Amino acid sequence: MNSNNQDASAATPPVLSAHRLVKTFGHVVGLDGVSLEVHAGEVLAVIGDNGAGKSTLIKCLTGAEVPDEGVIKLDGKEVQFRRPQDARDVGIETVYQTLAVSPALDVAANMYLGREIRRPGVLGTAFRMVDTKEMRARATEQLHQLGISTLQDVTVPIENLSGGQRQAVAVARAAAFGSRVVVLDEPTAALGVRESNHVLELILRLKEKGVAVILISHNMPQVFEVADHIHIQRLGKRAATITPESHSMTDAVAIMTGAKAA
Amino acid sequence: MSGTSSPPTASTAALDLASQFIDRRTPLSRVRGVLHRFPAISPGIVLLVAVVVFGILNPRFLAPANLSLITQQVAVIGILGVAETLIILTAGIDLSVGAAMVLSSIVIGNAVAGLHAPSVVGLIAGLATGLAAGALNGILVTRLKLPPFIVTLGTLSIFTALLLLVSSGATVQGTSLPDLVTWTGGTFRVIGVDISYGVVLMVALYLLIAYMLGRTAWGRHVYAVGDDREAARLTGIRVDRVLLSVYVLAGAIVAFAAWTQIGRDFGSSPNAATDANLNAITAVVIGGTSLFGGRGTIWGTLLGALIVGVFRNGLALVGLDVLYQTLAVGILVIAAVAIDQWIRKSKS
Fold this sequence. Notes:
The complex is a heterodimer.
Chain A: E1 16-25, E2 28-38, E3 43-48, H1 54-61, E4 69-74, E5 77-79, H2 84-89, E6 92-95, H3 107-111, H4 122-125, H5 132-145, H6 163-177, E7 181-185, H7 193-208, E8 212-216, H8 220-226, E9 229-234, E10 237-242, H9 249-257
Parallel strand pairs in A: 3-8, 3-9, 6-7, 7-8
Antiparallel strand pairs in A: 1-2, 1-4, 4-5, 9-10
Helix pairs in contact in A: 6-7
Chain B: H1 10-23, H2 27-37, H3 41-57, H4 64-89, H5 97-114, H6 119-142, H7 148-167, E1 172-173, H8 179-182, E2 187-190, E3 193-196, H9 197-215, H10 217-227, H11 229-234, H12 239-265, E4 267-268, H13 276-286, H14 298-318, H15 322-344
Helix pairs in contact in B: 2-15, 3-14, 4-9, 4-12, 4-13, 4-14, 5-6, 5-7, 5-12, 6-7, 6-12, 9-10, 9-12, 10-12, 13-14, 14-15
């Protein structure tokens, strides 16, 4: 880490940390010994050029890929995520670039996909009946709490929604269930100006709640607006970790492209 | 949106304009939207129209005895269609359900008539055969990651060879089988209509699978896997586990089709039901289930099977040659897929 890590983070272990992760795809080296740490109530932005290994890094942190080498720690204890469900089980939620929503299922079904609520009593235990009404009610409530007003009706299939609304579903799902860490991979890519601002507000609200947020973005002004720390990924390695105070946007871009050493 | 008062920029204004344009729907696109949401509507309409038209052309069509006959003719394909629907919902295809069904019926027939096993043991052996056939397909699809088309094309030949091996090419007559084994062919009378136990079995299976698909988490996962497999994986669904369960369950259903087949044919023959597999796929497709996966209902398949049964029976009653029945089924399949494509275009 750089010397400008000034807060009380030294006292408590980071909620999520990665140590020297290596991931190769055949001859292509995706990650070449990358380390990263994020604390509760902190926004860590990850920036980097295309092919720098941002998405691979995120996938390793969320169980979508298993790193070849390296250690991932949760609250200082080593964990192994072999599949996305493992990360979800410990309160790490992700908005993937592809959004990972099922077009034919409705909003509520997508929010509760893989964590369906069953009916109380025998219907739920013996007959394994899902409680559609309860899930819809909770989804509506969660969207309301998150201030996402673009989605009024949770019974609409995802495919009937606009690109921005789909992204809102994915972001809402992660925000609603991410109790420890929320990872957002280009969450504003399909959004207009107003919706983007909304997502940034949401990120700050998660931060207030003490959730750690990892934000991957190409949008430098956004990154510098919300991030506490900025992890710069370059050629499969961490080039530097800076803060919006310590470096300018121009510096960040220079480090990202290799025009300037960290 | 909430009170964030960013000034309307050129891009958001353009977006608003675009959304207005998209929202302006023609009546036709509205119809398409409804069909998209309820894929069983179009086969339902086709069935209704077919029944009315054939009823007018030949009053005998609507006679209780004839309606009873249609349901009995439909039962085997109807049950196979349940298995095929499950697999097609996962964006797969199964070319081996027909051969697996005949293999299972041969195992039952030969175990009971040849080896003098008790009926229950014979039926359990048939069920085990179906489960094993489904498990084999499922393991090849999930472990070796082979496309379902290739896997089941291979197992189609394997099951066909096995059934010839087990049966030595010989037919087991119903007369040498105990009542329980041919029970599915028996009938009981409700308000003048003879209903076979095979039809009852079929309806029970439809109710069971409709419940599993519509009311359990497993059902949602089946749709999610067929819809977008990678998205399903990223949302924490164990995709391989879901796929394997679907193939094994389909295998069990195939065994029930075999039992129904024995009752209907009054015996088990290695030469039976050679076109059953394609008929089952036909029923699924006419029923509005998309071959791309993730879309369709089990009830659509029942309608599809009934449509094929009604067309064959109705055209025969009108006095047309079998070749016209086959022609009609062919046209129905292509029309159904064309409608499916058109409906899917409503969203992009």
